Amino acid sequence: MVEPSIVTPSLRDQLDVVISTSGSLDFLEGWRPFLKNYHLIIVQEGDSPKTVKVPDGFDYELYNRTDAERILGPNARCITFKDSASRSFGFLVSKKKYIFTIDDDCLVAKDPLGKDIDALEQHFKNLLTPSTPTFFNTLYDPYREGVDFVRGYPFSWREGAPTAVSHGLSLSKPDGVASNQKNQRYVDAVITIPKGSLLSLNGTNLAFDKELVGPAMYFGVVREGQPAGFHDELWAGLCIKVICDHLGVGVKSGLPYVWHSKASNSFADVEKEKAVSWEKEVIPFFQQVVFPKEASTAQQCYLELSKQIKGKLSGVDPYFSKLSEAMATWIEAWGKLYAS
Amino acid sequence: MVEPSIVTPSLRDQLDVVISTSGSLDFLEGWRPFLKNYHLIIVQEGDSPKTVKVPDGFDYELYNRTDAERILGPNARCITFKDSASRSFGFLVSKKKYIFTIDDDCLVAKDPLGKDIDALEQHFKNLLTPSTPTFFNTLYDPYREGVDFVRGYPFSWREGAPTAVSHGLSLSKPDGVASNQKNQRYVDAVITIPKGSLLSLNGTNLAFDKELVGPAMYFGVVREGQPAGFHDELWAGLCIKVICDHLGVGVKSGLPYVWHSKASNSFADVEKEKAVSWEKEVIPFFQQVVFPKEASTAQQCYLELSKQIKGKLSGVDPYFSKLSEAMATWIEAWGKLYAS
Q1: How far is B140 from chain A (nearest CA, A)?
Q2: CA of B136: which chain A residue's CA is closest?
Q3: Residue A127: C-alpha distances to residues A11, B86, B136, B225, B244 (Å)
Q4: Interface contact A136, partner B, CB < 8 A
Q5: Element containing residue A62 per DSSP (H, E)
Q6: For chain B, which terminus, N or C, has the lower number of CB atoms within 10 Å?
């Protein structure tokens, strides 16, 4: 039985696919059946003139550092062009309600029955149904077809909260090398990360509602004096999660899977000891952060967060001072772009 | 490839299987391959003399209301003998470190490959490996074989916390009737319910570490004036979860599955409106409850919880006053039994 797709043309028009790349977009060929009708925003990493070749037939805009400087002026300094954190620029310039971002080394994954997974179909299912951040449903996403709330789940909590983030996972090939990124297990579940709980976000396969939380989805400035073991995706996840919790919107994690062909192994154990010194300050900061009641938008929350980080984490490592300034610049850029 | 069992004879001797029943224990036949070497504690529901027939070859103790009164004296009033909440008595009299409890209408479930699931093997895996209550691992239980922490997961948080509760799930037959208890999906995952998040516990297939949290695993007094929609398992889950959170120990949920042959449908929608009135007081109470730092054992926490419930929930419904008294009696019974 083939389930009818929930993705109508008008829904599809509300989403941009944001991809950052240092060169080849060959991976798009495999995605053609699923992405051909979407609009792509491609951000070229590095300082070169535009050299990215997009496979024929895709509808896209292509930006590089020069474009960012033209559009953002001096605020362009908050955008990293050295790696995939440059995708933040794509989030900023998109005019759509929803964003889907995917790494340029990801292929279409197969479900356990061998069928190609339409990642966006599942991301839309996640985003268009509520989350359950304030009470955990042990049968996982209760809004999924064929699932329900478990017996005893409080009736008054069954309306759930709007979903702001859909955090997809990835599968990769077993290669005999022990690694914390080599996941081979397909788990047929979507869960809401409960309120108050932090996660390490992965930007490989991620969708979000830009209207709800766009200003809080920022991958920061990277490779500029960051402490050992610091990870821009972890950082983005900490920021977005505490803001979602404050705003009363949900973060889901789980399906859909993509296939990660060459998972990097950037976190060697050798970094562990160095990371511990800042982690022990940074994680508790996020576990305890409180926003003023007046902060009622992602934009306000993110600016407030940048101030608290400046005040409380600058002493941990000078990098956090630099990062907090970049966060404030990001919000300034956001404000200027959407002022009118 | 057959994985060697982690359950050694000496580990098996540290666990009691607690079953409450109103009569037939025929279900044990199917469990024989898995339970034959365990000690069973059987609690007979109702007021009759002992009439329960245990299939040959099982090692067991059988208790009824008369035994409870002999052993606990007047404190026996905290034990319900009208339904499966009578299992609490079994938890109390067990001398073992670990308890596994299972409903007497549950059969052995099969995994997706058609293999019978050894529920206790999985419960031991859950209980003997740490939990991750303070930081969510998006690849689920990182201590499971073949799984790890996701990239970026803070190193300092990777030791985890001791696991106190292993909450197994159940599968049931599709019967065309819409019901919140008819789960047909096998999800190959174990997750830690994060600190600060509540769940609706199900006692169908549940294991816990009695040394860590035994006094907090109590199914209360039921069928005695409880408000519409009140559910003893939800209540037990709320109490045990806030106490686990305070003690810094973990609650896992997910695998193993059992097969629930006749899932009752006690929660009709008609109860929804009536439940809302007490839920709106009771759930926020548990979301906000704070224990004094001096409360460092499950016993102390549970007594403290009974006092707070008396103070804050008695006005919601007289049942909560009765329940708080039963909770205090339970702790008194516990104290007397383990005083020497």
Answers
A1: 9
A2: A199
A3: 12, 43, 20, 42, 32
A4: yes
A5: strand A59-63
A6: N
Measured distance between the N- and C-terminal CA atoms of chain A, rounded to whole angstroms? 48
Region A303-329: mean pLDDT is 97
Chain A (217-236) residues lying within 8 Å, Cβ to Cβ, of chain B: 229, 231, 233-234
In a domain, A7, yes or no: no
| Number of domains observed in the structure of chain B | 1
Question: How much is the pLDDT for B154?
Answer: 93
The partner residues of B260 in beta bridges, in order of sequence, read B106
Closest CA to B46 of B87, B81, B88: B81
What backbone torsions phi and psi does residue B18 show, to the nearest 5 degrees? -105, 125
pTM for this one? 0.95
Task: Find the CATH number of the domain harbouring A70.
Answer: 3.90.550
Q: Tell whether A279 is within 8 A of chain B (Cβ).
A: yes
* A122 burial level (CB within 10 Å; 0-12, 13-18, 19+): buried
- Our CA-based measurement puts residue A109 at a distance from the nearest CA of chain B, in whole angstroms, of 16
Give me the helices (H) in chain B, please.
9-12, 28-35, 65-72, 87-93, 119-128, 210-213, 232-247, 272-288, 298-313, 318-337
How far is Cα of residue B310 from the mean position of the Cα atoms in its chain?
A: 23
Q: Which of A139, A189, A280 lies closest to B183 in CB terms?
A: A139
Element (H, E) at B206: strand B205-209
Residue of B nearest to A233 (CA): B152
Closest Cα partner for A286 from A335, A235, A252? A235
Q: Does A173 touch chain B (CB under 8 A)?
A: no
Which of A28, A49, A37 has the alpha carbon at shortest distance from A9?
Answer: A37
| Residue A73 domain-assigned (yes or no) | yes
Tell me the three state secondary structure of residue B57.
coil
Domain that holds residue A130: 12-337
Contact A136 B181 (CB under 8 A): no
Contacts of A290 (CB under 8 A, 6+ apart): none
Q: Chain A: residue nearest B168 by CA?
A: A138
The answer to whether B245 touches B159, Cβ cutoff 8 Å, is no
Looking at residue A229, its pLDDT comes to: 84
Please state, in angstroms and rounded to a whole number, the distance separating the CA atoms of residues B216 and B298: 6
Contacts of A276 in chain B (CB under 8 A): 155-156
The per-residue pLDDT for range B84-126, each reduced to its tens digit, is 899 999 999 999 999 999 999 999 999 999 999 999 999 999 9
Using a CB–CB cutoff of 8 Å, tell me whether A262 touches chain B.
Answer: no
From A72-86, A219-233, A275-289, A312-326, the region with the lowest mean pLDDT: A219-233
Contact predicate A269/A211, CB 8 Å: no
Other beta carbons within 10 Å of B258: 22
Please report, for residues B181, B223, B225, B263, B270, the alpha-carbon distance to residue B266 in angstroms, rounded to integers and kept in the order given: 9, 13, 16, 9, 10
B4 found inside a domain: no
Chain A residues near residue B200 by CB distance under 8 angstroms = 135, 137-138, 149-154
User: Does residue B169 lie within any of the structural domains?
Assistant: yes
Amino acid in position B255: L
Task: Tell me how far apart the alpha carbons of residues A247 and A299 are, in angstroms, rounded to a whole number.
Answer: 11
Report chain B residues whose CB lies below 8 A from the CB of A166. none
ipTM: 0.93
